[in-house]
Write a structure and sequence with these properties.
With about 150 residues, this protein is mainly alpha-helical. The protein is built from 4 helices and 4 strands, in the order ααβββαβα.
Length: about 150
């Protein structure tokens, strides 16, 4: 009942008003806003590079190739432990649309796919609050991943 009441009080608007901001669009937060968030979380905001990017020459125009790290990642890819070092690693590549998976062909293409652009390695409730507030204020999707180590 309460949620119905709240929804009925919302003003009529186009569906675009409710869509989340998307990278490289006018509604995506500016670099200065991301920098402010990074300050708010004491430098714990990181740009995401897919874990398998070490198997490719480049990711987003940056050299990411590291043959030794790639081999280690490929060797352990089917094991849970191989994914623990990354806050965004997804055990089943299906969920990333296979956009950046371990390969023996470094000339292939590694793209972001379903990986987020940024991650906050939160260490406190304040960090989490800053991330949630930023997502709400800037209309960006929030992806929560818990690391219980």
């Amino acid at each position: 009942m309460w949620s119905f009441l709240l929804l009925s009080l919302l003003p009529a608007a186009s569906s675009a008003a409710f869509c989340k901001a998307f990278p490289n669009t006018y509604s995506w937060p500016s670099a200065s806003k991301w920098s402010e968030l990074n300050s708010a979380v004491h430098g714990r905001l990181e740009a995401v590079v897919p874990p398998a990017a070490v198997c490719y020459e480049t990711f987003n125009g940056v050299n990411t190739s590291d043959a030794a790290k790639c081999q280690a990642y490929r060797d352990g890819y089917s094991q849970y432990d191989a994914h623990l070092g990354s806050p965004v690693s997804i055990y089943w590549e299906f969920w990333t649309n296979r956009t950046c998976v371990p390969t023996k062909d470094p000339t292939g293409k590694c793209t972001r796919g379903a990986y987020p652009n940024y991650v906050i390695k939160a260490e406190s409730v304040t960090d989490v609050q800053a991330g949630v507030d930023f997502a709400r204020t800037n209309n960006v999707r929030l992806w929560v991943s818990l690391d219980t180590r």
